[in-house]
Amino acid sequence: MEHPKVQEIIEKQVLTVAKAMEDKLDEEISALDRLDLDDLEALRERRLQQMKKMAEKRSRWISLGHGEYTEIFSEKDFFSTVKASDRVVCHFYRENWPCKVMDKHLSILAKQHLETRFVKIHAEKSPFLAEKLKIIVLPTLALIKNAKVDDYVVGFDQLGGTDEFSTEELEERLAKSQVISFEGESSLNASRSGSQARSVRQSTKADSSDSE
């Protein structure tokens, strides 16, 4: 008995949404129609300036080592690195299997997220930093913004509690702390990273014979 009424309500809701979308599109088309040549030139110039600024940012990031996952060999270099880049993910590691798993994921993300510097430092060779930042469990990721440690990813507990987590899961965790962005550079290799993430654990095992 109530079926026709439910169907009628749904149809009305669909029509309402469709009408709202159509009205919005009409407004945007009208706005474009009202633009004169000067307006279009101003939009073009603004877009060119945005592209120029992004290119300058890219060049600066690359000059600072962004786009690659690299190792820092001294505590002094750690401080200079976090001062130079607005956003840094620093992996405190030792030579063990869990840290090798983390290495594989971070090397993928470093290439996708040019806006963030990805580095690692040997925790046992950096006693001052390890004590100052209270690094106990390895691996630990220090998530650094504007030269200050803003958050940590300790071990794999926040990644499902297993070493079989995907690159995307780690990416989502880093994005939650806003140490990486999902805009611009961050999505360049999104489609390709899925297949890479699935093979991370397998390839790491093939590379590693000295776990733990």
TrEMBL record:
<dbReference type="InterPro" id="IPR036249">
    <property type="entry name" value="Thioredoxin-like_sf"/>
</dbReference>
<feature type="coiled-coil region">
    <location>
        <begin position="18"/>
        <end position="60"/>
    </location>
</feature>
<keyword id="KW-0175">Coiled coil</keyword>
<dbReference type="InterPro" id="IPR013766">
    <property type="entry name" value="Thioredoxin_domain"/>
</dbReference>
<protein>
    <recommendedName>
        <fullName>Thioredoxin domain-containing protein</fullName>
    </recommendedName>
</protein>
<feature type="region of interest" description="Disordered">
    <location>
        <begin position="185"/>
        <end position="212"/>
    </location>
</feature>
<feature type="compositionally biased region" description="Polar residues">
    <location>
        <begin position="185"/>
        <end position="206"/>
    </location>
</feature>
<feature type="domain" description="Thioredoxin">
    <location>
        <begin position="72"/>
        <end position="155"/>
    </location>
</feature>
<dbReference type="Pfam" id="PF00085">
    <property type="entry name" value="Thioredoxin"/>
</dbReference>
